[in-house]
Amino acid sequence: MQESQPSPAIRTGRPVISATGLYTPPDSITNEELVASFNAFVDRHNAANPEAEPLAYSSVEFIEKASGIKARHVMSKAPILDPDIMCPRLPERANDELSVMAEIGVAAARQALERAGREAKDVDAVLCAASNMQRAYPAMAIEIQQALGIEGFGFDMNVACSSATFGIQTAADYIRAGNAKSVLVVSPEITSGHLNWRDRDSHFIFGDVATAVLVEDAAIAPAQHWEILGTKLKTVFSNNIRNNFGFLNRAAPEGEGKADKLFVQEGRKVFKEVVPMVAQMILDEAARLGIDPESLRRLWLHQANAGMNRLIAHKVLGHEANEDESPTVLDTYGNTSSAGSIIAFHQHSDDLAAGDTGLICSFGAGYSAGTVFVRKMG
């Protein structure tokens, strides 16, 4: 009788954020430029449809009061501002060329690797976590992996505006389980492609960007890194933010039904329902981790709406947060879906001292919400 062999010991890791990367498109659209384009479209539409109820103008004041956004970066500026087009025009690339989402994702990933002192051979996996993929397959993550020269594996994730935080927890779980020691979470968000630029209530919301987060085992991390103290994910189904575009209904006819193949939302309902849900989620997870929420040095919140962030921060910190405690990138980047909180973290974290704790938090369509509590080390 053959004796059974003991199972090999499972090596468990302690996940940390070693570095982040950011790609910002060079072109930006100001509110003034956007309003001029939108109002020109309104004039043309109303003149061509005298029997219909006239469309209302947009304004800089309306946009800033509704969102806090003042500008947004985009991959294709001129066509968006053309009243005859009003959407991005990105030339289709041949199958043997690097896809546009992969291109900007690779740029952000390379910056993260450089900041961590890593080479491609050091990385085990790539997760492409974004709100919309430019194709169904092959996975964008595998194309990014190939372009970077990384061995291992990759796959795509879509949890809308929470894709990046869901990706961070997934990467952290791989580290904890000993299945990887270094994972790139890449979020190329070309959100201008699924925005209805002719809808007054939402035409100002989105911008384009790409971020990358390198999640690693603390044993191999650079001296200065961010310990991941705990992560929490939550989803609750809601139709209040929706986009029906997909391969089953890609050829929407003109007119009836076409608008819902782009971003649509019930903004007031989202505000009313998401703010208390996210604030309570943060407080519950902080309690579980033994963290006093009022001791959090900084909140890197989802960059969708300044009012939502102000209320959530107040509920968490117990007072009105200042710009240092809850920094904003929404004003210059617009809503960049899952990348927003990562941009805020990337641009506003180097100044914190060792031992400071903070929170990366996302929330959006789904509803989906993710929290990542971190501590500065080194």
From TrEMBL:
<feature type="domain" description="Beta-ketoacyl-[acyl-carrier-protein] synthase III N-terminal">
    <location>
        <begin position="155"/>
        <end position="235"/>
    </location>
</feature>
<feature type="domain" description="Beta-ketoacyl-[acyl-carrier-protein] synthase III C-terminal">
    <location>
        <begin position="288"/>
        <end position="375"/>
    </location>
</feature>
<dbReference type="InterPro" id="IPR013747">
    <property type="entry name" value="ACP_syn_III_C"/>
</dbReference>
<dbReference type="Pfam" id="PF08545">
    <property type="entry name" value="ACP_syn_III"/>
</dbReference>
<dbReference type="GO" id="GO:0004315">
    <property type="term" value="F:3-oxoacyl-[acyl-carrier-protein] synthase activity"/>
</dbReference>
<dbReference type="InterPro" id="IPR016039">
    <property type="entry name" value="Thiolase-like"/>
</dbReference>
<dbReference type="Pfam" id="PF08541">
    <property type="entry name" value="ACP_syn_III_C"/>
</dbReference>
<dbReference type="GO" id="GO:0044550">
    <property type="term" value="P:secondary metabolite biosynthetic process"/>
</dbReference>
<dbReference type="InterPro" id="IPR013751">
    <property type="entry name" value="ACP_syn_III_N"/>
</dbReference>
<keyword id="KW-0808">Transferase</keyword>
<protein>
    <submittedName>
        <fullName>3-oxoacyl-(Acyl carrier protein) synthase</fullName>
    </submittedName>
</protein>
<dbReference type="GO" id="GO:0006633">
    <property type="term" value="P:fatty acid biosynthetic process"/>
</dbReference>
<keyword id="KW-0012">Acyltransferase</keyword>
